[in-house]
UniProtKB/TrEMBL annotation:
Record protein name field: N-glycosylase/DNA lyase
GO cellular component term of the entry, any: nuclear speck
Matches recorded under CDD domains: ENDO3c
GO terms of molecular function: 8-oxo-7,8-dihydroguanine DNA N-glycosylase activity; class I DNA-(apurinic or apyrimidinic site) endonuclease activity; damaged DNA binding
Free-text function comment from the UniProt entry: DNA repair enzyme that incises DNA at 8-oxoG residues. Excises 7,8-dihydro-8-oxoguanine and 2,6-diamino-4-hydroxy-5-N-methylformamidopyrimidine (FAPY) from damaged DNA. Has a beta-lyase activity that nicks DNA 3' to the lesion.
UniProt feature, compositional bias: Basic residues: 382-396
Keywords: DNA damage, DNA repair, Glycosidase, Hydrolase, Lyase, Multifunctional enzyme, Nucleus
Class in the EC hierarchy, top level: lyase
Region (Disordered) residue spans: 367-396
Protein's organism: Paramormyrops kingsleyae
Matches recorded under Pfam families: HhH-GPD, OGG_N
Length: 396
DNA sequence: TCACAACCTTG
DNA sequence: AAGGTTGTG
């Protein structure tokens, strides 16, 4: 049976490229609720479906490592495409061992075996990842700019580093976020998993777990979908999904969503809002996370509270419900404060507000024999093991 | 433009 | 209640 790839096992092919932690922190970026399809299948190893195939990712101090499954898929994908030269991508096994040993703290030393490293062209995988993580956007520089204009941001910026917007598939993003209304992240993840298992193309099976692609708009538009999804626990959202898919095909065509990438923000948002189950909040999520609208800023109940509590945002206070007008004003307030990448800054604050990451705000715990450069990671692992969960730290 | 209820489940 | 949307007054 095929198993999930593990970096230290020596049984898998891993490739990597330079990507410092200040630019990307996988645990936060994949776990902050912008995507619902990645799971931590081993310590620091994230497995999920992206671009029609299954990946496992992990990172060391300054590199991002990746493994993909079922390489036969890549043959079709490569056809007719020209990829940039591979240049300095290849590393020697010796260098890998040195680096991995340094980072992974193998006490035995020398027992660590790494997977095969081939010199063949990687089939565009590195480029796919660079696009998915939008690595051309200089996150470290943006953090400095946001911190210079906003001391609340500055307070958390040193802890919650590398929180990056993904460039997700628009179809997956739209239909996933229609599921988020009145819902928790943990439950959403289960729903999306069942949605893909029911309507998505099967890709492979790892350790007995089947992986599926996200369903196509066509699959979601079928008349039987609402009943199926209600059976899977989608509640009233089942109809929204089927109707939105139907409306896209009937009124625009399957390529319409992707085409919104080249349309101005407000226009794209208005277009999305014509779909059932899509209000301002969901539309902004889709704009920000899949349509290249970096200024789109989803205002949920969290951001509403943050705006009042931390920013004394006057338009946010004194109302019982988040009206369309206030929604707009809060977004404009943060866009003025943070600039054209306001949506990215928002996700850092959102991430820092999540219950599951509150432990990162605690003072570091010194572990015996632990170097300080791996402090934050060591701290997280240590506290995961000890199950520490202290009260949320709020700054006022 | 604002407020409120209803909507499906479950952690 | 939970990262909302829709319909009604």
């Amino acid at each position: 049976m095929t198993q999930h790839a593990v970096f230290s096992s020596g049984a898998n092919v891993w490739r990597s490229f330079c990507c410092p932690r200040s630019e990307l922190w996988l645990d936060l970026t994949l776990g902050c609720g912008q995507t619902f399809r990645w799971r931590e299948t081993a310590d620091g190893h994230w497995t999920g479906v992206m671009g029609g195939r299954v990946w496992t990712l992990m990172q060391t101090e300054d590199r991002l490592w990746y493994h993909t499954y079922g390489s036969q898929v890549s043959t079709a994908r490569q056809a007719g495409r020209k990829w940039p030269g591979e240049g300095e991508r290849l590393e020697t096994v010796k260098k890998l061992k040195t680096e991995a040993a340094a980072v992974k703290e193998e006490p035995e030393g020398g027992t660590l075996e790494l997977g095969e490293v081939t010199s063949q062209w990687d089939g565009g995988e590195e480029e796919t990842l660079r696009d998915y993580f939008q690595l051309k956007v200089p996150l470290g520089d943006l953090y400095k700019e946001w911190a210079s204009v906003d001391h609340h941001f500055k307070d958390i910026a040193n802890i919650f580093t590398g929180v990056r917007m993904l460039r997700q598939d628009p179809t997956e993003c739209l239909f996933s976020f229609i599921c988020t209304s009145n819902n928790h992240i943990s439950r959403i993840e289960g729903m999306i998993e069942r949605l893909c298992a029911k309507l998505g193309a099967p890709l492979c099976r790892l350790d007995g777990t089947p992986y599926h692609d996200f369903p196509t708009v066509h699959a979601l538009a079928d008349g039987s979908v609402e009943a199926s999804l209600r059976d899977l626990g989608f509640g009233y959202r089942a109809r929204f999904l089927q109707q939105s898919a139907r409306q896209i095909l009937d009124q625009h065509g399957a390529d319409w969503l992707g085409g919104l990438r080249s349309v101005p923000y407000e226009e794209a948002r208005s277009a999305l809002r014509t779909l059932p189950g899509v209000g301002f909040k969901v539309a902004d999520c889709v704009c920000l996370m899949s349509l290249d609208k970096s200024c789109a800023l989803p205002v949920d109940t969290h951001m509403w509270q943050i705006a009042q509590r931390d920013y004394r945002c006057t338009m946010a206070t004194g109302r019982k419900t988040l009206t369309d007008k206030v929604y707009q004003e809060i977004g404009d307030f943060f866009r003025k404060l943070w600039g054209p990448y306001a949506g990215w800054a928002h996700s850092v604050l959102f991430c820092a507000d999540l219950k599951k990451f509150q432990k990162l705000k605690e003072p570091p715990i010194k572990m015996e024999g632990e170097g300080d450069e791996k402090e934050s990671i060591g701290k997280m692992k240590a506290e995961k093991k000890h199950g520490k969960a202290r009260a949320k730290v709020c700054k006022t």
